[in-house]
Amino acid sequence: MIMWFELLKKIQDVLMACKVSAPVQLGAVIPQHAAVDEIGKIMLVRGSETANDESIENELLVTIYLEAWVRNDDPDLSVGSARISELEGQIDAALKQMRQAVGSLNEDICVLNGSNYQILDLKVKQKTGDLDALRPLLGSQYTIECRLFDLTREGGIY
Question: Rounded distance, CA 128 to CA 120, Å?
Fold first, then answer.
């Protein structure tokens, strides 16, 4: 199924349209090898796909991981914390905007054209300091849960 790749691209498009300050890439590398600078970097990574509700066979639960990274060489640790907090705020605002667009059935946002799936909901299940963070790199990891509906099956929303 290519729906997970279309979902990653859709989240990337939304983050870029909301003008988050850090570049957004699909896939992840070890942060120390990602050329993270003070502007930061956002990496979107595939998680898992599972049936969400056995009574609704065409609904899937997809997990996506978003990693946000910044670099801080300042000896004052609060400078880096402020920067990752600022980037998180931008990401949070973009994901909230995306969730609202999905909820209002904005087809530009909720339909994954390349895979015939529709996003029913998208929410952040967890946000935590990334365990790979090692000064001068500071990171956060989001666990994003998305409910998708297969539009090719009978009973579709559209």
Answer: 25
pLDDT by residue for the chain (158 residues), tens only, comes to 578 899 999 999 999 999 999 999 999 888 888 889 889 999 999 999 887 665 566 788 999 999 999 999 998 888 988 999 999 999 999 999 999 999 999 888 888 887 888 999 999 999 998 777 778 999 999 999 999 988 877 655 54
8 Å CB contact between 71 and 62: no
Model confidence pTM above 0.85: yes
CA distances from 136 to 81, 95, 97 (A): 11, 27, 31
Helix then strand then coil, % of the chain, to nearest 5: 30, 40, 30
- Helix pair 77-103, 3-17: axis angle to 10 deg: 110
The DSSP H or E segment spanning 148 is: strand 137-150
DSSP string, 121-141: EEEEEEEEE-TT--TTEEEEE
